[in-house]
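Database export, one record per block. Field names are fixed; values are copied verbatim from the stored entry.
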Amino acid sequence: MAGEKETALRLEIAHVLCVDIVGFSKLLIDEQTEALQELNQVVRSTDSFRAAEATGQLIRLPTGDGMALVFTISPEAPVECALQISEALKARPSPAVRMGIHSGPVNQVVDVNERRNMAGAGINIAQRVMDCGDAGHILVSKRLADDLAQYRRWQPYLYPLGDCEVKHGQMVSVVNLYSDLVGNPEPPSKFVSAAAARSASRATVTSKSSHLPALISLIVLLALLGAGAAWFLNRRSVSTAPRFLEKSIAVLPFANLSANQENAFFTEGIQDEILTDLARIADLKVISRTSVTQYKSGVERNLREIAKQLGVSHLMEGSVQRSANRVRVNAQLIDARTDTHLWGQTYDRDLADVFAIQSEIAKTIADQLRLKLSPSEKAEIETPPTSNLAAFDLYTRANVLLARSTYSSRIVEDLREAAQLLNQAVVLDPNFFLAYLRLAFVHDRLYFMGADHTPDRRALGDAALQAAIRLRPDDGETHRAIAVHLYRDLDYNGARAELEKASKTLPNSSHIFELAGYIDRRQGRWEDSIRNHRKALELDPRNFALYQEISNTYASLRRFPEMVAALDRSLEIVPGNVENRTARALADLLGHGDTEPLNSTIRSVLSQDPGAASSLAEQWFLVAMCRRDSAEAERAVAALLPTGMAINGVPFPRPFCEAMIARLRGDESVAHEAFTRARAEVEANLRASPDYPQALVMLGLMDAGLGRKENAIREGQRAAELTPVSKEALVGSAIVEILSVIYAWTGEKDRAFEQLSLSARIPAGVTYGELKLHPYFDPLRGDARFDKITASLAPK
């Protein structure tokens, strides 16, 4: 018609996530409103949502009982968002949701309110895919799943379901997306019903042609219906069994067949070097050492179950026998999916050839799995760690100590002994690159954990790192070691840049993602921290300590149900772990002000294992103080290590804890004497490092306890200036809370409430349980401002 403009339809490809609340129509009106508000809050809090919205690459479409999120960034954006939504909802009682994802054509339209909107087949199909699911499902169209499957990250998540009939008789091919933490692994009811219907149809045809009595026909039909359902469930176990990467492997601990059992260290070193060689290959997924260590040799192994737990297709086993100047190494490669022996060989040679054997094994594995080896990867595999076997022995012994030290009450002693062994190793081989890296790690740890926070210890760490840099300046391990060093020195941006360089030649290093998660947390990038630690778990799936770190991050965010869920996963890996059990009960104290779960857990642990006292002394002391039980607090302090305890890097000397107990009993003279001893310990640390903020703020707290008001405030404020929350989220938050206590103890209530209000608003700050129960805050109780801050953190 004349005068009318013809509008061209402009199509583009978008990536759509549809979400709806299951059973929405059955809810009361106010329940519907509450469920939608909670879902909206969860969705808006995800990193993927915020990132896309900030760059204008997201359109939100309300759908009544949910929403459609249209991303124009990448196909991964809606998948990442779905995982984050599923994870956030996992620990909540409601609402139950299902999700569908598809990439397809959409076109921009203008709605009745003259706002930009979206329509098109891409949104419609995402909706249809979602309709195939039940509560908890994250379903993906096969088209999008095929794109995701090209990337190692997503392959372990994808489980094909087949075709599903949806609206208007349309068929969509659907893939279930889940892991052990997100999504729903069970087959959707529509697929179960369809399989049963197909079986029933076949049974009906059979019964019509049968001349058997009707009763027998009915029995056959019921049997076939049962068989149909069983067929589907069995089919799921085959066709939707975890589709692990074809090129993936775990190198299990080798058996030590030597007559001298001291050669167990040597055997561990051989296995670790083969694992390290394979981990250099970008075309292969290799599980990290921490996860494989628990599958010790000498016990019967269920290889299929191990491969399933580790998420790999192949396993490698072996043994080492060392005798005088000879060594025999046996290695076997197994396809764990079929329990098929693919390759095996025994190497019987001079001991001096042991490193050549390692290289040959790694290259043979590469050939067997048809891996693409770059020239640099081949060169790395062929480079021996050292030319001196005695140095290698010392190095492997040090590594065992370092692995043990993480969970040992003798951590300082273990670190010092490891340093001695590594010093001897580099004397024997001044070009032992890996030994220098480990030596730098040990010295840095002793320095930054406060066990030896002196310039001399710092100089030893610097010297070891510089020696490694001189030997291999461009090696990925060098860049990773520099990143660790810079991280501990609070240079987080510098550490992140070094990690980026390290990742180019260390494709299987879970430590890169792990350290990135720690950096994120220190910089207040909390969701990024969780995401990076999840990525580390893909390469180190049985590392229960990573789940502990994720739980710590949730605790900092005061998301206590999710903290508990992460600890439960850790307990699945290491059942009965004392730290996990007590941390799980700690969530009730921090989040709800309920001391009984932690108190009873500690009593239960001690009754079963009195030797565990030192490992739970910090939480034991905390719950005793919150219960105002001075006798129990004394027993907890007696179990503390001589160095006391450290919370977020802030040292609490044992005499400080004794002073708090004396105050609880009303004995100010004993408290004054204990505060004086504690102050002397902290002051000794400050003589070596005058601007050590963690020690400064504790000195301020000690002076507050001693009534030295001006000194206490000056020291506390100086610590806060040196480490603001914007610079260091964890330590900075701890300093803010302690500064509020300093002000409270010195009678500066207005300043105390200013700091306490800030602490209640930021992650890693004060919790509801602490405010409700801890004696720290007694000088502020009874003030309406204190009640208001406490109420703001009360469980909802």
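Remark 1: Residues 578-792 form a domain with the Serine Threonine Protein Phosphatase 5, Tetratricopeptide repeat fold (CATH 1.25.40.10).
Remark 2: The CA atoms of residues 100 and 130 lie 4 Å apart.
End of record.
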